[in-house]
Amino acid sequence: MDLVLVSCSFPDETLALAAAGAVVDKGLAACCQVSAPVTSLYRWEGKTERAAEVILACKTTVEASPALCDFLKARHPYEVPEIIAWPITAGLPAYLDWVRLNTTVGPPS
Hints:
The chain is an alpha+beta fold. Helices cover 30% and strands 36% of the residues. The chain has three helices and five strands.
């Protein structure tokens, strides 16, 4: 399990697309997808909030994921952005190999 899917919610498509482009250009992930708007409900500062958001899903390596998470956090408008990762446990072998080949950033130095 050397691959992960890193997910990050953004307040709008413009910010998510900008982050996706930078992530792929920098080799932090092989591929990013930006979702259609979703409705998020969450607790924040003692109140239930509701917001439209878009989800950025990045396919990357475990090795590159800390640098990817740091990159997203540093450029995110939220005080506490949702940045989570799931292990990729299976998939089309050729696609998984492609993700490995196209993620060029190693561990943070």
